[in-house]
Amino acid sequence: MIRKVTAVLVCLCSIISCVKNSPVPSKEMVFVEGGVFQMGSESIEWNTPREVELSSFYMARNLVTVKEWKEFLNDVAVPFNWDLEESHSFDGKLKDLMPEEDCPIQGMNWYYAVAYCNWLSKRDGFRPCYRVKGEIKDKRSNPEVVWNKKANGYRLPTDAEWEYAARGGRLSKGYLFAGSDDVTEVARIGQNTSYPVGQMMPNELGLYDMTGNVEIWCWDWFDTDPSKITKKKNPSIDKESDVQNRDERNPESMKVIRGIDWKYPPINVFERSHYPPQYILWIGIRLVRNVE
User: Fold this and answer.
1) Cβ(94)–Cβ(107) under 8 Å?
2) Rounded CA Rg of the chain
3) Which helix H or strand E contains 217, and what residues bound it?
4) Model-level pTM?
5) What is the DSSP annotation of 160-216?
């Protein structure tokens, strides 16, 4: 009897130890079941329709907030200018565009977004997805970033993952915007600042602010016609050298941007934009993780 009790206690202790050592996400993640969908639209520039197949993944229910970004800055020695002024784009300072702690963070370049993903992965006990070859600095950043696609940590969504999730995945009802055909139900447009996350109606998957609040960085390098250079399953443009079709008006190397911010007119779930990875303004972060 004593031996049986001892064996049970040892087993329980082992289970408790495993639970304590198991990675625990600090961000609420939504399961996005994979599937096949028709990405893009004939009516949209730079998003030629093509069939895409995606594996399942997790996506954060909400954008990364100011409060969460401050935790990162308190732990990582990178410069971040809250007093940045861009008079040609807005009046005042960057911090004025985020009046509350639960507003989405904005104003970091693509490399800072990558650094945040790695930092949170380590903090939560996951394996970081990105290997950075070089130093991450503010507007001068230009290191090589390699994505380990087998890692279980936080990462940026691919272009295809964002569109699939924004359209509702397998639960899609075919809305023009993420969760509705009426943009006023899912976003506040023409605002002077961003607003707290999760206040508007979510889409079919329960994801908030996929249309509105801030634009977000995606993983992919921008190509005007990705249908010509990407594969059908889990497509992504991983290397700058893979880009074949550049925007003739802005031929420099760009990263894909998705969504829309608090100031400009609404755009639908098919539209995609692009900025240089060093660009700093109204762009934020939405986290993704692989399904293990």
Assistant:
1) yes
2) 20
3) strand 215-221
4) 0.91
5) HHHHHHHTTGGG----SBTTBSSHHHH---S-SS---TT-S---TTS---SSSS-EE
Residue recorded with tokens 């950075």: 132
Q: Give the C-alpha separation, 26 to 41, whole Å.
A: 36
Question: Tell me, what CATH number does 201's domain have?
Answer: 3.90.1580.10
**How many other C-beta atoms can be found within 10 angstroms of the C-beta atom of residue 10?**
10
pLDDT the model gives residue 15:
32
Nearest 5°: the CA angle 58, 122, 216 is 45
- What is residue 4's predicted lDDT score, i.e. its pLDDT? 45
Whether 198 and 188 have beta carbons less than 8 Å apart is answered as: no
Q: Helices then strands (H, E): number in the chain? A: 5, 12
* Main-chain dihedrals φ then ψ at residue 133, nearest 5 degrees: -105, 90
Q: What is Dmax (Cα atoms) for the chain?
A: 80
Between CA 254 and CA 250 the distance in angstroms is 9
**How many domains, the chain?**
1
Q: Within a 10 A sphere around the Cβ of 67, how many other Cβ atoms?
A: 12
pLDDT at position 225 is: 94
What single DSSP character describes residue 153?
A: S
Range of the domain at 102: 2-290
CA distances from residue 179 to 169, 182, 195, 209 in whole angstroms, order as listed: 11, 9, 18, 10
pLDDT tier at 8, thresholds 50, 70, 90 = very low
β-strand partners of 29: 60
d(CA 191, CA 189): 6
- pLDDT tens digit sequence for 151-193: 999 999 999 999 999 999 999 999 999 999 999 999 999 999 9
Token digits of residue 215:
């634009």
Could you identify the residue written with the tokens 């016609």? 225
Residues 6+ apart with CB under 8 A from 113: 156, 217, 285
